[in-house]
Structure formats: structure tokens, C-alpha cells
Design a protein that fits this description.
- The protein has seven helices and 22 strands.
- By secondary structure, the protein is α+β, with helices and mostly antiparallel strands.
- The protein has a domain of 172 residues.
- Strand 11 and strand 12 form a beta hairpin.
- The chain starts with a helix and ends in an 8-residue tail after the last helix.
């Protein structure tokens, strides 16, 4: 009988522990909690629900929290687990905070930055110390970016600074490890089969980076990436003390350029293996504007490829022979310098060489993807060389190539005076006259 009585008492106590939290009128405290949170954050805070639980450990469950006048931050559920032994101490300790399914909009960045500034200005011991922070299925809603859901686990010190952090995408493709180093943090990044979240949809077979964060400066000492059967190595620096500034260097080797080209154009225009060296820099008031303010110089070489939709042999032969075949240009080497400022691109020092031709020139690409340039093509004809200047126009998707007006006029004049043998001579003379009067600038 005594044993049964103990069982009944234990069951009653257990039931009380389960039911008691629901008997506490926590709803009466919601408005007060919302007001205090709004004062601390400097932003309106709304809380959907608050429940207390004693099992498996004492905790508070906060549901449907929204922060900001436009709900810049939304959180499905927050669980706060206090250290009971410190409830009446001068400094209370929260053993663990679990944040489930937070949604953070881009506009929340300024808000979070202001909160971080307030935290840095706080002096003395905090009245509440958080030991462990867990974030599950975090989603960043930023226009123009396709960011994966993220999980994070952060260990914090008594002054609220991260002692270590492990961040990973829910799909497991991206991982970040953060540990303290000197006055900042050392960060390692490891990504597998990961797609770039903004800009062209580049897919990395693997991406590894070693970084150091100190204050408002991020140094990326080394980046190694494998993509499209090639590699990219480089380093970079990002600084946001006064305005956003980025700069760096990179080197590519053996990248299959045809697959990359598909990301920039509706139809593929070039194939081959890409190698080269480049530098970049950018500065802007906002991080999102860095891409539009980018300055890039990339000295490149593409080996054993094809230019599609641009038959240089055919275009150069139009006035010097009656028959031509094919709609592409095969080359042994394509080299040059890509110079970019924002959305304006320019291909300088272009050189295309094969057994049949040697072409040199340059092309500009406008933000609307329109082409404007000239290429001088040397063709082997009858044991000699004939140089034909070609005008490049149209668009990236539909390029147009034809002899310049000066070359056409010279060819006609040379043929009239010397017959078929004078065509090449006339073209060369027409090209020189065209350059003198501005034909090389594509005047019509």
C-alpha cells in the first residue's frame, strides 16, 4: 500500500509539473515584455505567445515574435532555458537560447548594426549572461540573392563575445567554423557542390577559404576553388569602416569556358579551356552596390576552342573569294585583356590564332550587351597574307561581323584597277584610309 501511495504521489507531482505552467497567467505579462524589448532594441516588438514549462527543464517558450515596423525580423519560436541556480544572483545566466525558423530581411542589417554598436558601448558586467545560442533553419530574404537556410551553434563568453561558432546550411553544402584569434576571429569556409547565391549561377565542385575578421575588416588570405573542370586561386580584402571596399587577386587554370559562358548568354559563343590572372577592386556606400562599382582587369588565354556565331574566315573572305563554308571559327589560342568597370566591358589586345588566320583587335560590350569593335584578320592567300579589317557589331547573343566600309571601298577600287589580284591590296589601303578618317570607330 505504501508503495502504491508513493506511485500516486509521484504521478500527481509529475502531472502538476506538466499542467502548472499552463495555469500561470503569462498573457498578462506580454505587453510589459513587449514594451521592455522595444525599449532595449529601439524597434517595435510584437510577441504572439508566451508559455512556461518545467519539463524536461524549466524554460520559457516564446512564439511568433516580430521586430521592426515592417517586421524586418520574424521568429517562429524562441526557447529560453535559464540556469536555475542563478535566478536570484546579481548576474543571471541563461544556459541556452534556441531560435527556430528566424526570417531576416535585408532592411534588418542596419537595425542589427545599431544594436551591435550599443553592445560595444556597454560597460561593466551584463545583468544577463548567455552561454549557448542555437539557431535552426534561419532564412535571409535579400532581393537578388538565393540564400540557403542556415543552422548555427554559438558558444558565448561572459561578455557576450563568441568563443566559437559552427554555421552550416541545412542542405549540408556550406560550412563555416569561427574561433577567436588575437583581437578578432579566424574563419574557415568549406563548400561542396555549392551555387553562388548572387549573380551568375556558378556551381563550385568545392570551395575552401581561410579568413580573418578583425573589427570592420575581413582578410581572405587564401581561396581555392574547383569548378567546371578547372581551378581558381586567390585572395581578397573587405573593409567597411567608412564605406564598403573590396579588392583582391585571382588566378584561373583549365576552366571549361563553354559552360560558364552559358550563364551569361542565351547561346554559347565560345568553347575551350580558360586560364589567366586578374585583379579587382570596388567601393560603395552599401554592400549591395559593390558589384555595380567593380573594376576588373583579367589577362586571359583560351586554348583549343571555337568561336560560335562569328566566322572570321568567312567574313574576311567575302570580298576575296566566291565560296565559303562553316559558321564558326576554330582556334588554337584566344587571348586578351578583359577590362570591366561596373556593367561596361571591354576586350583589349584580342588575339585569335589558328592555322588559317591571325586576328587582332578589340571589342566593347555595353551594359545592354551590344558589341562595338574591330578585328584585323590576316588570311593566307596564294602563298601570301591578306589583311582584312572586320567590324564587330550586334549583340552578345547575335553578333554581326563584316568588312569595314573602308576595306570594302578599297577592295572595290583595287579590283577595278588591278583586277582580282588588286582586291587584297585595295583592302589594305582601304583599311589605312578608314583608320585615318575614323572608320575603325565604327562610324556609319
Amino acid at each position: 500500500m505504501k508503495f502504491k501511495r508513493v506511485i500516486y504521489i509521484a504521478a500527481a507531482l509529475l502531472a502538476l509539473l506538466v499542467v502548472a505552467p499552463f495555469l500561470i497567467p503569462t498573457g498578462t505579462y506580454l505587453k510589459q515584455i513587449e514594451r521592455l524589448a522595444s525599449e532595449k532594441l529601439g524597434q517595435p516588438v510584437a510577441i504572439g505567445s508566451l508559455h512556461m514549462a518545467l519539463l524536461p527543464t524549466p524554460r520559457a517558450n516564446i512564439g511568433n515574435t516580430r521586430v521592426g515596423s515592417n517586421e524586418e525580423i520574424q521568429v517562429e519560436k524562441i526557447t529560453v532555458i535559464p540556469d536555475i541556480a542563478t535566478l536570484f544572483a546579481a548576474t543571471r545566466v541563461i544556459s541556452r537560447i534556441e531560435v527556430k525558423q528566424p526570417v531576416i530581411k535585408k532592411a534588418a542589417l542596419d537595425m542589427l548594426g545599431q544594436l551591435a554598436g550599443k553592445g560595444e558601448a556597454t560597460q561593466g558586467a551584463a545583468p544577463v549572461v548567455i552561454r549557448h545560442l542555437v539557431v535552426q533553419e534561419a532564412r535571409l530574404e535579400w532581393e537578388g540573392m538565393n540564400l540557403p537556410e542556415m543552422d548555427a551553434e554559438v558558444e558565448l563568453s561572459d561578455d557576450g563575445k563568441p568563443q566559437s561558432a559552427k554555421i552550416a546550411s541545412v542542405d549540408g553544402k556550406l560550412k563555416l567554423d569561427v574561433v577567436p584569434k588575437e583581437e578578432g576571429y579566424a574563419i574557415t569556409l568549406d563548400a561542396q557542390h555549392w551555387m553562388l547565391p548572387a549573380g551568375p549561377a556558378l556551381v563550385f565542385d568545392s570551395l575552401k577559404a581561410d579568413m580573418a575578421l578583425q573589427g570592420s575588416k575581413l582578410d581572405v588570405s587564401a581561396v581555392t576553388a574547383k569548378l567546371y573542370r578547372g581551378t581558381v586561386d586567390g585572395n581578397a580584402t573587405l573593409d567597411w569602416a567608412k564605406e564598403w571596399r573590396a579588392s583582391g587577386k585571382f588566378k584561373t587554370a583549365g576552366i571549361e569556358v563553354e559552360e560558364v559562358a552559358r550563364l551569361f548568354s542565351k547561346s554559347t559563343r565560345v568553347s575551350g579551356r580558360l586560364s589567366g590572372n586578374g585583379t579587382f577592386s570596388a567601393s560603395a556606400k552599401e554592400a549591395a552596390a559593390l558589384a555595380d562599382r567593380l573594376t576588373l582587369d583579367f589577362r586571359f588565354n583560351v586554348a583549343n576552342g571555337v568561336l560560335y556565331g562569328m566566322d572570321l574566315v568567312k567574313a574576311a573572305s567575302m570580298l576575296i573569294k566566291q565560296e565559303y563554308h562553316g559558321g564558326e571559327t576554330k582556334f588554337d589560342e584566344l587571348s586578351g585583356l578583359l577590362h570591366a568597370v561596373g556593367k561596361q566591358y571591354e576586350l583589349r589586345d584580342l588575339k585569335v590564332s589558328s592555322g588559317l588566320l591571325l586576328a587582332k583587335g578589340g571589342v566593347k560590350i555595353s551594359p545592354a550587351k551590344r558589341l562595338d569593335g574591330q578585328v584585323d584578320v590576316e588570311l593566307k592567300q596564294g602563298g601570301g597574307l591578306v589583311t582584312v579589317p572586320l567590324q564587330i557589331s550586334g549583340t552578345v547573343d547575335e553578333p554581326k561581323v563584316m568588312p569595314t566600309k573602308g576595306a570594302m571601298a578599297g577592295a572595290i577600287a583595287g579590283t577595278a584597277v588591278l583586277g582580282p589580284l588588286g582586291t587584297g591590296v585595295g583592302m589594305k589601303a582601304g583599311s589605312a584610309i578608314g583608320k585615318l578618317f575614323g572608320d575603325s570607330k565604327n562610324k556609319k
